[in-house]
Amino acid sequence: MTPNRISRKTTPNAFEAGFTLIELLIVMSVMLILMTLAVPQLLKLRKQANETSAAQSVRTIAQAEIQYNSAYPANGFACSLTALGGDPKSGAPTAQAAQLIAPDLAVGQKAGYTFAITNCTKVTVNNQDMYTSFEITAVPQSIGKTGDNGFCSDENNTIRKDPAGGTNCTVALQ
User: Fold this and answer.
1) What is the reported pLDDT for 50?
2) pLDDT for residue 95
3) Has residue 49 been placed in a domain?
4) Could you report the average pLDDT of every consecutive run of 10 residues in the chain (174 residues)?
5) Number of folded domains in the chain?
6) What is the DSSP code string of 19-35?
7) Sign of the alpha-carbon torsion through 162, 168, 170, 174
8) Fewest CB atoms less than 10 Å from the CB: which of 9, 26, 144, 170?
9) Are 139 and 133 a contacting pair, CB within 8 Å?
């Protein structure tokens, strides 16, 4: 006769089924270190993208001003973003809504910057008001967060920047 053999089932140890607390803490600390290195770079890239968009938007507005002056010579230049903007669905362009810039830019805010047309010089010719000069400004909505530089342009179509984020634009944009 053969002795009765008791078969033992081997069960996995309960502690071997998952991660230990130490392993989880190590992984979390590595992830935290990587995030502290990556997040500032992402914010820097976003700020740089906002500044590039703002400079391009100033260029677009300046070109729209030149087109406006050609289309409406009796008015000279436009002295507001709404005069350059307008909804294309509302009908034909007019001097009050020339439809030369996108409606979102005509609102005056885009990509963390606020845009305005200022310093308009007005003369009266034959009882008609005409604007002979203007200045386009773009300032960050939150200096250091949405952008560092302010941007400006005028009727000469030269874009300059203010490293302090304001409208004292003295440095030519390269």
Assistant:
1) 95
2) 87
3) yes
4) 56 66 92 87 92 95 94 91 88 90 92 94 88 95 93 93 92 82
5) 1
6) --HHHHHHHHHHHHHHH
7) positive
8) 9
9) no
| pLDDT on residue 64 | 94
Domain around 83: 19-172
Q: What is the pLDDT of residue 13?
A: 55
Four-residue CA torsion sign, 55, 56, 57, 59: positive
Q: What is the pTM of this model?
A: 0.78
Q: Is residue 60 part of a domain?
A: yes
DSSP helix/strand/coil, 112: coil
By 3-state DSSP, what share of the chain in percent is helix, strand and coil, each rounded to 5?
35, 25, 40
Residue 3 falls inside a structural domain? no
Q: Could you tell me if 14 and 73 are in contact, meaning their C-beta atoms sit under 8 angstroms apart? A: no
Task: Please list, in sequence order, all residues whose beta carbon lies within 8 angstroms of the beta carbon of residue 29, skipping any fewer than 6 positions away.
Answer: none
Token digits of residue 114 = 């606020």
Q: What is the pLDDT of residue 152?
A: 96
Integer angstrom CA distances of residue 18 from 13, 22, 31: 10, 12, 19
Residue 103 lies in a domain: yes
Distance CA 65, CA 27 (A): 56
